[in-house]
Design goal:
The structure is a single chain. By secondary structure, the protein is α+β, with helices and mostly antiparallel strands. The chain is 35% helix and 37% strand. It contains 5 helices and 8 strands; from the N terminus they run ααββαββαβαβββ. It has a 5-stranded antiparallel β-sheet. A hairpin with a 7-residue loop joins strand 3 and strand 4. It is elongated.
Amino acid sequence: MKALFRAAAIGALIVAGTASAAAAQQAPVPAAAADSLFRATTLNLSAYGETRTRPDQATITLGVTTEAPTAAEAMRLNAAKMSQVIAALKKGGIADRDLQTSGLNLNPQYVYQENLPPRLNGYQASNQVTVVVRDLAKLGQAVDAAVNSGATNVGGIAFGLQNGDAAEDAARLDAVKALQAKADLYAKATGYRVARLVTLSEGGGYTPPPPMPMMAFAGRMEKDSSTPVEAGELKVRVDVSATFELVK
C-alpha cells in the first residue's frame, strides 16, 4: 500500500514538472520586449548603380517595297528582291538564326481627285526582316550588301550585349555601395548607427535599347560606298531598395 502511494506521488510530481516546463515554453513575450520589436527605428532607402560598356551586337531592320498593277505581281517582285537581300546577308556571314521576318504587308494604292471616287492605281507590297549582327565590324558591310541587292528601307538600329551579366553585376555593386553610403549618412545625421540590413530588393537591369531611326533609300548605293556606323557605349543600370534597422 505504501509502495502504491509512493508511486502515485512520484507520478504526480512528474506530471506537475512537465506542465510547468510546457507553461514556461509557451510563456508570452514580455510586453516591453514585444513593444520594442514594433518600435524599432527603420530607414527605407533606394539607390542605383550604373556601368558603361561597349556593345558587341546590333539589331537592324531592312525592308523591300515594291509596286505593281496587280497584287500578285507586287508580291512576286517583292519576294524576288527580298530573296536577293537575304542571300546577300547570308553571304556576308549572317547566320540563319539571326534573320527573322518582322513585317509583311500588301496594300492597294488609290488616286484621289476632288469630286471623284478613289481610283485603284495598283498595289504596294512590303517585306521587312530583322537582322542581328554579332560582329559589329561587319555591320556597315551588311547594310551596304542589303541595299546593293535590293533593299529599299533601313528602318532602325539598336545596339546591345550578347551577355549582359558582367555589366549588370558591376552595376549591382555600385548600387549597393551607394545604398550603404546613404544609410550611413542618414544614420549619422539623425544620431543613430546602422544595426543591420532588414530587406533588399532589386529593380531594373540590362534592357536592350529600342531601335533608333536610321535611313531610307530610294535606290541602290554605289558599289564602293561604305556605311559608317558608330557603336558608342551602352548604359546598364540597376535599381535597389532596402530597409535598415537603426540603433542609438
